[in-house]
């Protein structure tokens, strides 16, 4: 599937892609903690990105973990560029700090990114 480029015009979805580029794999609850947004809103962004070809998902117990899909070279270049400046450094730092402090992170039985 060719990723839908129009989906990443929205700032939260760009932020999601960057977080997954640097973290590898996150579940919805981790994204909610990192972004400081509501669960329904984050879930909607994740569903759009998944359906639009940017993300892959796997279920483990009650959790659904998201990671970047196997992207074509042009899309991977865009994600890499976003990770280098598509989200303000201060915003990304805040998200990663929130994520690191999130006590509700699920324990994964499968390796990250598999």
How would you explain this protein's 3D organization?
It is a single chain. This protein is of the alpha+beta class and 114 residues long. It has one domain: Winged helix-like DNA-binding domain superfamily/Winged helix DNA-binding domain (Arc Repressor Mutant, subunit A). It contains 5 helices and 3 strands. It has helices at 11-23, 28-35, 39-51, 73-83, 89-100; strands at 26-27, 55-60, 63-68. Strands 1-3-2 form a 3-stranded antiparallel beta sheet. Helix 1 (11-23) crosses helix 4. It is globular and about 35 Å long.
Task: Sum this structure up briefly.
The chain is α+β, with helices and mostly antiparallel strands. It has helices at residues 11-23, 28-35, 39-51, 73-83, 89-100, and strands at residues 26-27, 55-60, 63-68.
CATH class: Mainly Alpha
Number of helices: 5
State the helical fraction: 40-55%
**Classification by helices and strands:** alpha+beta
Please state the CA-atom Rg, rounded to the nearest Å. 13 Å
The number of distinct β-strands equals: 3
Listing every helix as H and every strand as E from the N terminus to the C terminus, the arrangement reads HEHHEEHH
Features:
3-stranded antiparallel beta sheet; 12% strand; alpha+beta; Arc Repressor Mutant, subunit A; 114 residues
How is this fold's topology laid out?
Layout lengths: L10 H13 L2 E2 H8 L3 H13 L3 E6 L2 E6 L4 H11 L5 H12 L14
Helix pairs in contact: 1-4, 2-3, 2-5
